[in-house]
Amino acid sequence: MSLLYFEDFVVGERRHHSLPVVRVDDVIAFAREYDAQPMHLGESDGFYSEHIGSGWHTCCLTMRAIADSFLTGSRAFGAPGIDKVEWREPLRPGDQLSVTIETLDKRESRSRPEMGLVQFGIETTNQSGTVLMRQVNWVMFGTHEPPLEERPAPIPRVVPSAAAATLTGKAGTDQQLYFDDLTVGDTQILGSHLFLEEDIITFARAYDPQSFHTDPAAARDSFFGSLCASGWHTAAIWMKKMVEHRNAMARTAMARDGRTARLGPSPGFQNLKWIKPVRAGDTLTYRSRVSGKRPSASRPQWGIVSHHNTAHNQHGECVFAFDGVVFWERKP
């Protein structure tokens, strides 16, 4: 089959792909590695009374469907980010996901005739037709135009202005127990993570099997010049560090007060930016800053917290950022 180029995408066309049934073991394995909250591990939780999968698991499975549907057979140069994701319903053990990818828009690059951008609207449903997730994002593709260079230079990507604010402070673990204790502007260092080549390849083989994520030799000849992590891997590690940090806070609170606040689910996120490639050997430090808060109108025991999140590499460069929202328990 011939490669898909920018010119081959038609606005309004739809592609469909189905995935195997999601098993209980699949949900738990992903949760243990990246999002070890009780509701994802099948343990008792106060927000959901049933076992549900991580929203990031839904994103990664959706990415796998996109890759299998057409992306690995295209001249793709990666995605600059995700405009928005809405988690409408939880992933549940036993679900069989179907993903529809609609081409919404496309733009030629005036300065880079060897590239173009295609915008996709993506909808993930279960076997009952229930929408679990909606996503909108752009992907860069090569054109049939011969490249000006053997390997096109990377496209500069703008660091969000809010990213700098995550470097300005760190809240103590006793300052963010319940929703009521949160202060807008509080910033926490979630932790650091070293991206190893074998881990990059393992994640990509499962969820994002593009050659510049799975094959070091092919990656050297790619747009990126060397093996780099899937953007979803970068995001999943953010969730991992967030949960680890929250668990440490919970242990401190339990030892001090005999109680701790719980986090609920997230309805989604927006403005996710993959600003620079994350390569084997890079160490990322993740931070989260409270950017807003409000009581929940439908769940009086919970509040809704907005947060701006970043990852900086060992050189101090911001490589990843997004704006998230999460339910946070209020004081009893």
UniProtKB/TrEMBL annotation:
Pfam families per the UniProt record, alphabetical: MaoC_dehydratas (PF01575)
Transmembrane intervals: none
CDD domains: YdeM
Family matches, as SUPFAM superfamilies: Thioesterase/thiol ester dehydrase-isomerase
Domain MaoC-like: 197-297
Name the UniProt record assigns to this protein: Acyl dehydratase
